Amino acid sequence: MPERDVLQAANEVYADSFSQGHLPMPPARRLAIVTCMDARLDPARFLGLEPGDAHVIRNAGGQVTEDAIRSLVISHWLLGTQEIVVIAHTDCGMLTFTNDDLHGKLRDEAGADASDVDFLPFPNIEDSVRASLRAARESPLLPDTLEASGWVYDVRTGRLAEVRETADVRG
Ligand code: ZN
After folding, report:
1. How confident is the model at residue 168 (pLDDT cuts 50, 70, 90)?
2. DSSP letters along 60-90, please?
3. CA 124 / ligand 1 centre spacing (Å)
4. Mean pLDDT rounded to a whole number for the chain
5. What is the pLDDT of residues 61-106, one digit of tens each?
6. Ligand 1 centroid – CA 39 distance (Å)
7. How far is the CA of 89 from the centre of ligand 1 (A)?
């Protein structure tokens, strides 16, 4: 059976006992979380979030990219979130390739020229989190009053460790 059919069957079970249709659109805990798309990460579970609590913005690497900023701007200015939490994780796929690797793969296997695309791989998890915090802080579209913190989730233990900003990057 294709996955889509399995998903639909699971959804029917879910909807049969669904009781949260009353939730308002703005996140109750005024939180925006930026994290990786990695299949092992279940932010609602490892952060104790309920539906309606937070925006969860996910992409490859959990990075505050231009598109993540787009979502954060909407999250803050239109939906009232006041705190950003960036969560990267150990064993991230973004540590495993370079732009050159992926450009070559796309050229060889898809005949596509992606040489002008930065896929944003990174060699260091904590530095990536610091760069994300810096990007959020330095965006002219987000206010300085937003709380922001950075974390690394350990996929082996399920535990978060805070990423401290070093003095030279403190804004
Ligand atoms: Zn990842």
Report:
1. low
2. TT----HHHHHHHHIIIIIT---EEEEEEET
3. 12
4. 96
5. 999 999 999 999 999 999 999 999 999 999 999 999 999 999 999 9
6. 8
7. 6
pTM for the whole thing? Answer: 0.94
CA of 103 from ligand 1 middle (Å) equals 19
How far away, in angstroms, is 90 Cα from ligand 1 center? Answer: 8
| Pair of tokens at residue 65 | 């990219």
Strands 160-162 and 147-153: antiparallel
Query: What is the distance in A from the centroid of ligand 1 to the CA of 129?
Result: 12
Q: State in Å: Cα 94 to ligand 1 middle.
A: 6
Concatenating the DSSP letter of every residue in 104-171 gives: HHHHHHH----TT------S-HHHHHHHHHHHHHH-TTS-TT-EEEEEEE-TTT--EEEPPPPGGG--
